[in-house]
Structure formats: C-alpha cells, structure tokens
C-alpha cells in the first residue's frame, strides 16, 4: 500500500508546527491549527488511532519541526549479530532507541545497547543513515519522520540481561534471524549489516 498519505500528513504537521512557533498573527495561528487538525484527521483515517490521540502527540511537539533520530547498534560476535526481544510485540530487533537531547549519537547507542541487552560496547563506525520514510525500507507507518543511524559497536563486556523493555538478548547467525520487529528494523537492513561486517572497508550507506 502506498504511504503517500503519511508523507502528506507529516508535511502538513511540520508546516503547522513551524507556523505556530513563529507566527504572531492570530488569524494565521488559527489557520495553522486547522492545518494540524487536517493532518491529524489524515493520520487517524489510515490508522487505528483516534484523531484526539494524534492531536495530543502533535501538540507535544514544539519549535521548528525536524526528523527524530533513532540509533541502532550492530554488535557482532563470532559472525553472529546481537538482537533483543521486545516485550511490546514479542519480536526481535537491534538494540537501540531515541537519542536524548544533548547526547551524542555515539554515546546514545552505547547506552541503549547496555540498557536493552546488558552488554557493554564501544561505537566504532557509522554504517548507515536511513530515512525511515523511504519506501525501499518497508517499515510500517509511524506518525513521526525518523532518521535511523546504524552503528557498528565493538563488544567489550557484560552479559545478556532482561530489561524493562526487552525479555531476551542473543546472537544470531545470518541464516537464522528470528521474527523481526518491523517498526524498528527490517530484513534488508539486517542483511546489509552482515555485508558490512564482511566488508569493513565499505563507506557509510545513506538515503
């Protein structure tokens, strides 16, 4: 199914957010609120969310609208890749999550890998920067526009640990990848990371 509707809604929301941030004219502010309402109605009509839920999410966004940043760690050990099992959907993914404000991405991924798996790592290379919205990746739709940063991380210690968000951490061979949490990572990205591991001289991928 085409996700053109998602791009339209995200762009309308960005225009509305920027207008609400910088405009002082009350009539313009009212128009930007109407644009935000339309964006929320578009998203709600193509999802299982209520318009009020989408609006609540939009209203929490302030300042100039920019994509969010998600980091994912590629931790290899004996030609196997570390994955964690998400409690939310029972599927597997690369450890990772949002970058906090004021936090360098390389530090964010080390933190996320430890928090979600129990393993201590060191970020050594940025392997890929992907636009989650790009249709070639095939992620299910989300209301946010997201850039995904994939880091190669060197394993330096720790042991597998269940966490608040995860209930399993294990290393998998390329031909034995479990069911993936597609909102977070897709099979083509996993395959590309294995290719990077076999070709350490490759440059960073980007959309």
- Give the N-terminus to C-terminus distance in angstroms: 21 Å
The CATH architecture designation of the largest domain is: Alpha-Beta Complex
**Estimated radius of gyration:** 19 Å
Largest sheet: 8 strands, mixed
CATH topology description of the largest domain: Nucleoside Triphosphate Pyrophosphohydrolase
β-strand percent reads 25-35%
The number of distinct helices, counting runs of at least 4 residues, comes to 5
Q: Could you list the spans in which at least 5 consecutive residues all have pLDDT below 50?
A: none
Number of strands: 8
Q: Identify the CATH class of the largest domain.
A: Alpha Beta
Would you list the SSEs in sequence order as H and E?
HHHEEEEHEEEHE
- For this structure, what is the CATH homologous superfamily of the largest domain? Nucleoside Triphosphate Pyrophosphohydrolase
Alpha-beta content class: alpha+beta
Average of the residue pLDDT scores: 94
Query: How many domains, in number, for the residues?
Result: 2
Q: How much helicity do the residues have? A: 25-40%
Could you say which overall geometry the principal axes of the C-alpha atoms support?
elongated
In short:
This protein is an alpha+beta fold and 207 residues long. It contains five helices and eight strands; from the N terminus they run H-H-H-E-E-E-E-H-E-E-E-H-E. The two termini are 21 Å apart.
